[in-house]
Amino acid sequence: MQTINIYLTGVGGQGIGLISEALLRAADHAGLAVNAVDTHGLAQRGGIVVSHLRIGRNLFSPLIADGQADIVIAMERHEALRAVNSAAKDGATLIYYDTIWQPLDVRLDIAAPVGAADIEHLCAKRGIRLIAVDYPALKDVRMQNMVLLSHIDKHGLIAGVKTDHYRQAMHDLMAGRMLKNNLALFESLRQ
Amino acid sequence: MKKMGDMLLRQAAFSEIVMGNTALVRAMIEAGTRVITSYPGSPTPEIASAIQSITPADRPFYFEFSTNEKVATEVAYGASVNGHLSTVFFKSVGLNVAADTFVQLSLMNVIGGMVIILGDDPGANSSQNEQDNRHLACMSYTPVLEPATPDEAYRFYLVAADLSRRRHMPVVLRMTTHVCHAKQKVRFSARQPAAHDDTPRFDPANGPYIPLTAAVFPLKQRALDRLKSVAADAQIDALSTLEEHDHPNRGIITAGMPYLSLKEVLLDVSQPPDILKLAMVYPLPVARIQQFLSTHQEVKILEELDDFLETRIKSIAYDAGLRTRIIGKIDSDDWMGEYTPDKVRAVMHKVWPDMVAAAPPKTPTSPVPDRPAQMCPGCGHRSAFYAIKQALADTDITVADIGCHTLGYMPPYNMGQLLMCMGASTSIAAGLALNNTGRHVVAFLGDSTFFHAGLPGIVNAIFNRHNITLIVMENGTTAMTGHQDHAASGHNFNQATDKIPVRQVLEGLGVKHIFEVDTYQQQQLTEQVNQAVAIEGFSVVIARHPCMLKFTRKQRRRPEFQLRQVAVDQQACNRLHACIEKFACPTFSRDQTGQITINPDLCIGDGSCRQTCPSQAITAPKPV
Known about the structure:
The structure holds two protein chains of two kinds. Helix content of chain A is 40%, strand content 23%. Chain A is α/β, with parallel strands linked by helices. Chain A has one domain (4-190): Pyruvate-ferredoxin Oxidoreductase, domain 3. Chain A has a six-stranded mixed sheet, with helices on both faces. In chain A, helix 2 links the parallel strand 4 (69-74) and strand 5. In chain A, helix 1 (16-29) runs parallel beside helix 5 (144-154), helix 2 (77-86) packs parallel to helix 4 and helix 5 (144-154) crosses helix 7 (176-190). Chain B is α/β, with parallel strands linked by helices. Chain B contains 21 helices and 23 strands. Chain B folds into four domains: 4-234, Thiamin diphosphate (ThDP)-binding fold, Pyr/PP domains (Rossmann fold, 3-Layer(aba) Sandwich), CATH 3.40.50; 241-351, 3-Layer(aba) Sandwich (Rossmann fold); 380-553, Thiamin diphosphate (ThDP)-binding fold, Pyr/PP domains (Rossmann fold, 3-Layer(aba) Sandwich); 562-624, Alpha-Beta Plaits, CATH 3.30.70. The two termini of chain B are 31 Å apart. The model of chain B has no long low-confidence stretch (mean pLDDT 96). The longest helix of chain B is centred in the N-terminal third of the chain and has 18 residues, at 150-167. Classes of the chains: A alpha/beta, B alpha/beta. At the A-B interface, helix 1, strand 2, helix 2, helix 3 and helix 4 of A face strand 8, helix 11, helix 14 and strand 21 of B.
């Protein structure tokens, strides 16, 4: 079996932990061997959060080497471009939720913000498939991760992982009102 | 929903995907550990989260967050000499706090057994240094086991606990950040719930437990004898692995997480070197290492951080008269950072360029602004720094301490210009105030740190009449590490308890000038700091506001929760940008024309920003 390296990133507070755990469990339900690691030192306080997820039998480190990610999943626009810079293979796939949490230097007018076109340009140059996701009608910001999860499923981005595996993973991780709301969102976006 | 607590208590064997930290808790339960203590610090707090997932009545052990790592170590030691298998866990620099007790432990007969779990942090992911705690363990004659994966964390803990119980000596299980946080499917054994004999078995006859003068030497002799016996322990030796690839002349000795990175780097090498992966990095299995050295012409010692294995292995070779070429650290880069696959590729390429290729050239990139960590929307510390900055001159000196408020050093606040370690701010400030008549000195201190290591510096400031102002940044919790309770919270890990209010402690110590204000009262805080720094002597300002991350999370869980947010009245806004350039809540966004808007993902509707707008253009929070 071929190794699939999945690099997840976003800003602390965006729910990277939950989507990474959901992907990990979905892959496990699909019978795939998985190794993962979250890196989240000070990131909870508005810094960068990164999660590595590796699928395959002949692998050792949970950490993905630079430029070796097959799939990059980003929860925010600046982080999407940063991850393509450091983690994506040429010809990889980038899926990102197109919301913007301006970094400090952008707010202070010291640095230029990243535009959607910057990402399109770099992806085109490097043969990276680009999927930008947005859902302006979303009521609860904490569910952006589930919007992304649903699109990952819809596009069949992770070979071997099927819709039911994602559903099973969500059942593993959530209960009550939270499960109901997230499942409803997940299903509605599959239509 | 899969309940972690149920899983951890399951009687039958099972497999589950778990984090290294979680795997440790199952191991503690299987081993029959009876007392567990800690002080929160990354990368270890998730051990406590796993413990918390078990309902208190079902926990087969006692757990507490103690006031600091030294106290936690002492509580675990006390339990162990009473016959209970105990465990203490904390982060890398926590061992410095615990050191006074830790260095003595090996002299003692810990009859119940005691495992010390260290969360070392190569790469300084969430610490102020990347200290290599193997040195401290060696200084304390304490064996060190080093797992590389969650599966090994589980298995090595069981062996460490057994070894400690058999030989009545402390044993260190040295985790590193990405072993603590790695996730993997682990096969757990069945659990045999033992009937605990809780008879307090402390007996001075098991000692002596008083290491004074001549009594020290038999204790030290015993510690050294125990170390020697551990080096030859068959059960430990079986944990190390020898991978023979029949390389004619090259070998590698390694341990822990760097082993995994090495295996990645060697994946495309047709004739990889033989690899000896050590499970115990102190004391070393001398015979096994001699054997490995004697069968290879060149041996690379691949280890993260310092040259701990290298110097010992070179000494083994010297004593055995071996001529093997031993390759250790080549340059200072080899001493720094985490040994990720990329790092190990760079290290190994320097050693054997014919075998390990350099990293491929970097692909083209586009510029992205940095994203440093920062205080959360609504954080009371933001209001505090905004207000305190207005009371101080640019030449005044501000000293930070450990915690969320450390982030005040960032622009635009630049509050907290020095940082050392837990509780150090007050005493560093005292030193800065000596022979200094022109510049006010202000120290910051969090409330959990106040109890952890802050008190001695405060007592000293009173005792020696230091001329400084201390600002206690009180948010009611240990926020940075995930909202653990502390002595002023009114609740410990297990139950409600008496609060120890910061103010009453200060009054009891005799602090004469105490100010106190909610940090959202920004103007009042500015005035209080103005008054406090003008006082000749020691003054304290308690700058209080509950942690808004904790508060908001709790609010959002209520079914009737209604999110409210502020807005910028574009008619009233004069684009003075105080909100973004002085107050700097991440909720404010600026577009290329200079227009300010609210980020609907981020605003929590606290409204603490409104008073910072000279044009009064920020509207009252409204339901959205």
